[in-house]
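cron nightly-structures :: item 1 of 1
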Amino acid sequence: MKTSRVLRILAGIAIVFGALTVFSGGRALFGSAEARASVGNAVDFVLWFNFSAGFFYVLAGAGLWLGQRWAVWAALALAGSTALVALALGFHVMGGGAYEMRTVGAMALRLSFWMALALVALRSLSEGKVFHPA
């Protein structure tokens, strides 16, 4: 059976999103002094999480594109771990820690995307539309 069109589109977006995340996170973490300064009041644990997660975005996106069952669980894990980091960011902000509002927005976008992707993937799996044994 063929992978659903919506899931394929989301998987492609995940791959591109992951590559951009690795690039921008790597630049913020390892780039020039100007690049590092441009992130402003970055929250270190969020920056490191997003950079690391970017590699998994690409991997999960590729797995979903190829219809691999493990990729559904990877998408769920990414949604869950992003939720936990967003919660930790919330505590950081409520505790008076320095942050950028764009970080809050980016975490909301990441969480929404991975929750939606995980739900579409789970639905496709339960309907038997997509997945091949890994």
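cron nightly-structures :: done
The two ends are 15 Å apart (CA to CA).
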